[in-house]
Amino acid sequence: MAAWRERSWWGWGWADSALDDDACRRLAETSLRPWLPIDGSLLPVPDDPVLPAPRLIPPSILREAFAADPVTRAAHTYGKAFRDVARALHGRLDNPPDLVCHPRTGHDVVAALDWAEAAGAAVVPYGGGTSVVGGVEYRGDTPWISLDLSRLNRVGEIDPVDRAVRVQAGVFGPALEQALAPHGLTLRHYPQSFEFSTVGGWLATRSAGHYATGPTRVDDFVEALRVITPQGPVESLRVPGSGAGPSTDRLFLGSEGTLGVIVEAWLRVTDRPARKASTSVAFPGYDQAVAAVRTILQAGLRPSNCRLLDPVEAMLNAGATDGRARLLLGFEGATTGLLADALTICADHGGVPSAPSAGGPSVAAAEVDSWRSSFLRAPYTRDALIRLGLVVETVETACPWSRFEALHAAVTAAAQAAAPARVAVVTCRLTHAYPDGPAPYFTVITPARRGAEVTIWDEIKAAVSEAITANGGTITHHHAVGRDHLPWLARQRDPLVTEVLRAAKRTLDPRGILNPGALLDP
Amino acid sequence: MAAWRERSWWGWGWADSALDDDACRRLAETSLRPWLPIDGSLLPVPDDPVLPAPRLIPPSILREAFAADPVTRAAHTYGKAFRDVARALHGRLDNPPDLVCHPRTGHDVVAALDWAEAAGAAVVPYGGGTSVVGGVEYRGDTPWISLDLSRLNRVGEIDPVDRAVRVQAGVFGPALEQALAPHGLTLRHYPQSFEFSTVGGWLATRSAGHYATGPTRVDDFVEALRVITPQGPVESLRVPGSGAGPSTDRLFLGSEGTLGVIVEAWLRVTDRPARKASTSVAFPGYDQAVAAVRTILQAGLRPSNCRLLDPVEAMLNAGATDGRARLLLGFEGATTGLLADALTICADHGGVPSAPSAGGPSVAAAEVDSWRSSFLRAPYTRDALIRLGLVVETVETACPWSRFEALHAAVTAAAQAAAPARVAVVTCRLTHAYPDGPAPYFTVITPARRGAEVTIWDEIKAAVSEAITANGGTITHHHAVGRDHLPWLARQRDPLVTEVLRAAKRTLDPRGILNPGALLDP
Question: Where is this site: Important for enzyme activity (chains A, B) (predicted)?
């Protein structure tokens, strides 16, 4: 289990993996100055925080589960969005949890909810704390506790006949894969936050893994859930498929801690893939590359990797400097014929596979490796860019293919128009692709006036969210709703459905203690 | 649109496709007498029914939409389960709808619901009327209308870029496929009821098609829904994927007309498959065949057909008389390597592909064709068997692989123990298979005392449902809940989830007019 002293309370991941001051300055000189007007000054890494005294006293029976020290409270104040890190760097910890509770058992969760109901405290469930949408941050006035589930960390039965695993909600990605590996099994679910996020967090937010197609959303792996609500536990039946009315699991998948605390799941696992094949393909234009991806999907091919990077993304993240878009293409399992079929489709759209280079790893392999390394390092680099005075954040959606071109143009234009001096780098990749549409993922980078970073981003985010909504995109494909997406979700979700969710919440959480302000206007 | 005079009001499908008296007697002599103690007498096809006068007067503004003639009312009294046909043959139409309403537009649906609320009438949505679980039959005391959606029968935009179709709820399977065929597209969803069931019925009951693996449940094809509730319309956003909270579509999928009337959907469609390959494989024992199916699925293979017939099923439905189980195996699209891989796995478990016969269609092709023809004729044959005095009905479930052997034994024993004189033929096929478990489908045939058929079946059904529940199976994999499965669902569904569904119903249907008694105890 990760001890909190080792994790960064203000930024991403492990404290000792953050770029130090020298590394930040090198990044500025080598990668940023040619592009962006930055002065090279650095926001310092903050000292340990000083916080107001908690307004709650933990109950005696659960005393060992509660922490009240400032670093633990600070680490549970925000998620890990740009605006979270920027606020923490500026020492803005305006509404930290009064207490952090680390239950070790389902009984502890029941006791914590009972106590919080009686104490009038809000309860914000917390998995790995990697939310980028304000999902673990409380914005109300009442006292509140962060319910950190990371000590519910047991991997139970691993069933080799049914290919399923029983796992508690607080198990992190690496621990789950370590438990499965000796059996030759894998969940095969790798969100970018994999190392620092938990099974329960994935389920509560309907996370999507880095596989581009096929079973990538965690929903697909769920056999059954166990959820503790203020009204009692809820369990679903563990079966491979059922048509017995609306799905119980689907009620809680994506409920973001507002209806109950997911404490355990049965998940489907699979054999570790024996074979993999991957390459990268260069396209003269982005539109042609998009058409190739659409055709690949609609031909029934399901590449495990099918990430389309626009030319700037390709340069920044895959080291490709020829100004062309790159499609990173990979297959697992029975690979040979499928990759060849996909490359034929790419060629029809002007795509050229990167040639193997003599005497060393191929260009394609280098580009794929460069992308993977960049993908995993990206959040640490992001923190360095924030310290250097940049707004740097991502926005994601999904839309029908027929609406993608207009959505892409509108999002890019909206971000640039809302940026200071209208200067912003806006890149786009397709992270996931479906036969009926892509999931585009935009990165926005713009210089910010010190101290105004959060306001600037909030303005850009609002403009971009309007553009997404106006062009038929979902307000979130896989970052979840939290608090930041709620104003736009409230317009996309039918008002009667909102009323149904409110009715569900009244049924399961009549006093409204669970994550108030996420998913539903309190 | 099918005019009701052409459809059988008492039995399956087209009236002129039913087996006539001579055909019934031939069936008895050639196929049944060697096996079962029947006397060969026939229940006559009933005359047109005489019904009590309706207790409702249709509103003047919708008068053209309403029918009150006895044949139309009789045809909407029941679904098409064994117990429905048996009751109709015996002239037991105890609680026919007072009126049948055929709305032509969404506005008509709104008007019908408004009128029914004011009139205190229950409203039972009706697609093609092929429910086998009491889903379209009202068992309450109040006046009621059957809301037949078959005139909401327009196929709207067919979007070739996004591979999607907008379709009204009352479109039948063949009409949808006919509209898609000129575009080279298909929904690829073929429940056994395909010819006589509607898109709206599939969605409301979470139907599964005859493809054995992969996207077989209609849920997988849904981009967006439009639903009319007594409180107003509900629409979901049309996107290829979303993580924006619990899925709106999943709330209505499987709601069986209790929360709203599904009037339209955007569905994902796909290219018609260019290549197909299929064969049949004989296994010395059923356990070995089950293990082969499990291994095929867990190896990542996704055959389009993977129906495993036990020896009696193989004889009755595929003409295989060697006492061996048969696996009907088919792939679509990129087929060659995959079928070879699957056959290798079968060989590891003792499976032998049926050899091609010289100078004619292969044995395998004959067995596959025999099965397909039997599959489509089965409901007509079933009606003939009922006229001959047999109880003949099917029961289906899904369970983890590790529980299948015990479930199979328990269901078989329970059906035989509950049958008259403990004599029943109980066969099993696997209709669908998942990496984590199969969906077994049992057929029960037993002679019945004239007039006692329904009581006898109800006793068998109760015993079998207990066996399923006790052995970890869902009470329904794809027949839905309706009224017949409700007592067992009430035990499998967590009571708090039942309360959430009740709260959803109160929100959308506060007077409780929609399909009372289905899915929820009224």
Answer: 307
